[in-house]
Design goal:
27% strand; flat; 3 helices; alpha+beta; six-stranded antiparallel β-sheet; four-stranded antiparallel β-sheet
Length: 201
């Protein structure tokens, strides 16, 4: 009996840890494919002052202080991307371009791939209506007038869905443990009358 309980407990803890690592805030958005930039863009947007990071790998083709736009039916956010910061994008942590607004992935061994480039980061003033449109999947991101076409902004998963899944999994594991305990009890009593106390492992 101890062995199934231990295994299920360890499994629950591992699942909770994975959920904590991969759980992402509802206000975090991503532009997955950025034509001409070779890397994604990330946004943390709510109903006030918001943050962004735009990764630009390899040859620096994106000029400093380029104008960027976030377009939604409720309005357009226009902001300067600022001055680029030189950096090296590394695959050591399992993602060449990690999202800066969520917990980092675990370290990755044996991944020497590195790409030089730069990133742009700063803040932009948002509103509740724009935020609501983005959550509804109605937002697009564009850099400059001719640098790129508008690209869809995607909201990352909400932690609440992961928590609900974990609660259901834990309830299922508890039911399995109870079933193992019930199945073991008759065997214990039979073994005890025939040959003394015995475990139910």
């Amino acid at each position: 009996m101890k062995s199934p309980i231990l295994r299920n407990t360890v499994l629950s803890l591992v699942c909770y840890l994975i959920a904590a690592i991969t759980g992402q805030a509802q206000s975090v958005f991503q532009v997955i494919n950025v034509p001409g930039l070779g890397a994604p863009s990330y946004f943390e947007i709510g109903a006030g002052t918001d943050l962004f990071q735009i990764d630009n790998a390899s040859i620096a083709t994106l000029p400093d202080n380029t104008t960027a736009l976030i377009n939604t039916p409720a309005g357009t956010l226009t902001f300067s991307i600022g001055v680029g910061t030189p950096c090296v994008f590394s695959l050591d942590f399992g993602d060449l371009f990690p999202n800066p607004f969520i917990p980092p992935p675990p370290p990755r061994i044996g991944a020497p791939l590195e790409i030089s480039g730069e990133y742009f980061s700063g803040s932009v003033q948002s509103s509740a209506n724009v935020y609501a449109d983005l959550l509804a999947g109605l937002g697009e991101f564009q850099i400059g007038s001719g640098t790129s076409s508008p690209m869809e902004m995607v909201a990352t998963p909400e932690p609440g869905s992961g928590i609900l899944f974990m609660c259901g999994l834990v309830l299922l594991l508890r039911r399995c443990i109870k079933r193992v305990v019930i199945d073991c009890e008759p065997n214990k009593s039979l073994q005890a009358t025939a040959a003394g106390p015995a475990s139910c492992d």
